[in-house]
Amino acid sequence: RGATVFVARSERFPLPRHEYYIDDLLGLAVKNLAGHMVGRLVEVWNTPANDIYRVLDDDGRETLLPAVEDVIVNIDPERGELIADTSLLE
Is the C-alpha dihedral spanning 63, 43, 45, 66 positive or negative? Predict the structure, then answer.
C-alpha cells in the first residue's frame, strides 16, 4: 500500500482492442480530421466521467480532449498518432 509498482513492458498483459496503456499514448502526435497537427499528448487526466487528454502545441497552447468516441476518432501508437474531431470542441 502506498508503494509504486513497476512492470516491465515485456511483462505487461495485452489489453483489449481500443484500450491502451497511458505510457503508450504519451507523446503521440495529435491531428485533426484534416490531418493538421494539433500538438502532442502530454498528459492523461483520469476523471469520473472519462479520461481527458491534455495536448500541447509547439507554442505551448493547450487543448483538452475528452477521451470519448465522438472526439477520439483513431489511436495508432504504432504510427505515433491520434486523430481527433476537434470541431466538436468549438
Answer: positive
Cell of 58: 509547439
The pLDDT, as a whole number, for residue 18 is 86
CA dist 87 and 9 (Å) reads: 35
Q: Which residues of the chain have pLDDT under 70?
A: none
- Grid cell, residue 83, equals 486523430
Q: Is the overall model pTM greater than 0.85, yes or no? A: yes
Q: Nearest CA to 50 among 24, 71, 26? A: 71
C-alpha 55/C-alpha 78 separation (Å) is: 19
Strand 37-45 and strand 29-31: pairing? antiparallel
Contact (Cβ atoms closer than 8 angstroms) between residue 71 and residue 61: no
- Please measure the distance between the N-terminal and C-terminal CA atoms of the chain and give it in whole angstroms: 42
Q: What is the DSSP letter of 53?
A: E
